[in-house]
Design brief:
It is built from nine helices and 16 strands. By secondary structure, it is α+β, with helices and mostly antiparallel strands. Helix 2 crosses helix 3 (71-82) and helix 6 (155-163) crosses helix 7.
Length: 308
């Protein structure tokens, strides 16, 4: 498929926001025409379709892309940008019209959920460049996975595995997923290495963050900054179920990092080794990506996007 030489290429995920994208697209399309965007659009047809669409668009010399969808759609667009070799990633500019379950990434950058206001931000043309994370699986061959918000291993990944069943609840899906996961998740043995930092033992979850919010508004890392060249890492150690229940509110207000069983540090590179046969799930930007030992490295200022 070749994409015509329009100025903007728009990727619409019709399933985002429990089908809201498809319902609202005619309204969004009218607004884009009103604001004189010269664009072509495509609906995604399957999981990770955005990756292919972005690669083809860049091959056809389109450098302005708009994401109409949620965090998962944006995650796939980022991976499409980072796995093509036609242009440096920083030359591809992405606008976001947020329609999703969590809409977490846009919260950090104050991109509004109001469609017209989001379109106006893109039209104004102000561009920022944030850091990205790169996840490599150490014990098996396979492509690297890139993330723009937060990656998590353990309880966090388990919640993402459950959330799909509850997406019709919107942002509350993550709270339901958390409560359901309480009864099915078991702490795991892991070792987290980063320079002089080493955290070993039974672990609830390990979080490698760039931006402030994940899981429908949870704040799981201490001082994340997507522009400072460092990950914000939180290792939640051997939580009991009672510890989790007591701290459900703190997952959302950011106070979880003050809990005595959470260790936080900053780094641009992290290695995580699982010390048991039963491997916990890994998620990146709310997308489940696999299991196993991983190496996570930071790529500075790799993602270019329209901001207020």
């Amino acid at each position: 498929m070749s994409i015509s030489s329009k100025t903007w290429f728009i990727i619409v995920n019709p399933t985002s926001g429990n089908g809201t994208s498809k319902k609202r697209w005619p309204q969004i399309k009218r607004l884009l025409i009103h604001y004189q965007f010269d664009f072509q659009f495509t609906f995604t047809a399957f999981s990770k379709h955005s990756v292919q669409l972005v690669q083809q668009a860049i091959k056809d010399n389109i450098t302005n892309i708009i994401c109409v969808g949620g965090d998962g759609t944006l995650h796939n667009i980022v991976n499409g940008i980072m796995t093509q070799d036609y242009r440096p990633s920083s030359q591809i500019n992405v606008g976001v019209i947020p329609i999703g379950t969590g809409n977490d990434w846009v919260k950090t950058h104050h991109i509004p959920k109001d469609y017209e206001a989001a379109i106006q931000i893109i039209k104004n043309g102000n561009i920022a460049q944030q850091d990205l994370g790169k996840i490599e699986f150490m014990n098996k061959r396979g492509p690297a996975v890139f993330f723009n918000n937060l990656a998590g291993l353990g309880f966090d990944g388990h919640v993402v595995n459950k959330v799909g069943k509850y997406k019709h609840f919107g942002a509350l899906a993550y709270l339901y997923g958390t409560l359901v996961s309480l009864f099915s998740f078991k702490n795991f043995h892991a070792k987290t290495l980063s320079g002089s930092e080493e955290v070993s033992g039974k672990t609830l979850m390990i979080l490698v963050g760039l931006c402030q919010y994940s899981g429908g508004g949870m704040q799981l890392t201490r001082t994340p900054n997507p522009f400072d060249g460092l990950f914000d890492v939180s290792v939640a150690k051997n939580f009991s179920k009672l510890d989790i229940i007591k701290n459900v509110g703190n997952l959302f207000n950011g106070k979880i990092t003050n809990f005595k069983k959470v260790q936080s540090f900053k780094s641009d590179r992290v290695e995580i080794e699982i010390k048991q046969q039963d491997l916990p799930f890994i998620q990146a930007d709310g997308e489940q990506i696999g299991t196993g030992d991983i190496r996570v490295s930071l790529i500075p200022q790799a993602f270019s996007f329209y901001t207020g």
